[in-house]
Amino acid sequence: MIGKEYFVQRKTSIVMAVLLLIAGSILYFAVGASNNVEAMNALEIATVDATVLNMLKDVQLKAAYTDKGSIDMFALAKNNAMAKLTASQGNPIPEVGGMVIGNVEGSMMQKEDEFKNVGDTITDYGIDFRIDGVLAKTGTFADDFHFLNNEEYNKLKGDSGILLIKFKDANTPKLFYIYNRDEPSPAKIELIDGNINLFYKQVIGKKRYYPMIIGAKEAKMMQEEKLFTNPGDIITDFFSKDVLIVGIAKETDTGFDMMHIVEKDFFDEPIKGVLV
After folding, report:
1. For the chain, which end, N or C, has fewer CB atoms within 10 Å of the first or last residue's CB respectively?
2. 260: part of which helix (H) or strand (E)?
């Protein structure tokens, strides 16, 4: 005879099976949803990266210098390129009288109480700027840019043609600063390794080597990629030049940390037939 305990156990087993089925279904859909979210995030990041690269391919830059010798980077980009970027605060396009700041620079300025919220006004380099927005992080040196519209950019007193963006390949932008050791510069360049007095072209054998100083973060990345180990090393065919690493700049927690410091003729076509 089947007792009462059997029915109780049977009922308990059925309930447990149903609960396990429900839990499994929830887990399945949760994992599926998570994968979908990850896929969407990956797609979004890829899209943002593409829009950032597009903006960097057609942007003008000016260098302005603080009293401490650091460099502030001001950028003029096309509105249609800026419109495709994402703002973490406010708007991505600087209007007349306004400024849009890269994520890292904007966060630092807020931390230092230079401004609190979008819409605040700051005075920088003798010009009043309204903060129109702070961009979402791009993972590039654009995170340290101050984006202006055409009117404010033309008003700003700074060095044009001294900051350059060059692409190593279609997806790899590099930031360059043109430096002349023999002429006074407002920029204060301190090395943690190397010798700035060696910042001149050298001829070894029948080869000409161009001097280069590298920002701290860029240097670390290049060392990890085994492009060089220490100052004094040579990198061949770097933007069609053979370069001698003169030094590594002291970390500044600014876009300067991603720069390659080179002479003004670095991107000129090499003069052939002069080495003997």
Report:
1. N
2. strand 259-262
Are residues 266 and 162 in contact, defined by beta-carbon separation less than 8 angstroms? no
pTM (whole model) above 0.85: no
The neighbour count for residue 22, using CB atoms within 10 Å, is 10
C-alpha distances in Å from residue 71, one per residue of 43, 66, 163, 224, 240: 34, 6, 10, 26, 27
pLDDT tens-digit series, residues 59-91: 999 999 998 889 999 999 999 999 999 999 999
| Residue 85 CB-density burial (10 A; 0-12 exposed, 13-18 middle, 19+ buried) | buried
Confidence band (pLDDT; 50, 70, 90) for 40?
A: very low
Cβ contact 168:239 at 8 Å: yes
Residues 6+ positions from 145 with CB-CB distance below 8 Å? 61, 73, 74, 75, 101, 102, 105, 255
pLDDT at 270: 66
Residue identified by tokens 């499994």 is: 24
Q: Per the structure block, which two tokens stand in for 13?
A: 């087993």
How confident is the model at residue 227, as a pLDDT?
97
pLDDT at 272: 58
pLDDT of residue 229: 98
Buried b (16+ CB within 10 A) or exposed e, 34-63: eeeeeeeeeeeeeebeebbbbbbeebbbbb
Dihedral sign of CA atoms 78, 79, 84, 85 in order: positive
- Using DSSP's 3-state secondary structure scheme, residue 101 falls into strand
Contacts of 118 (CB under 8 A, 6+ apart): 89, 90, 91, 131, 132, 133, 134
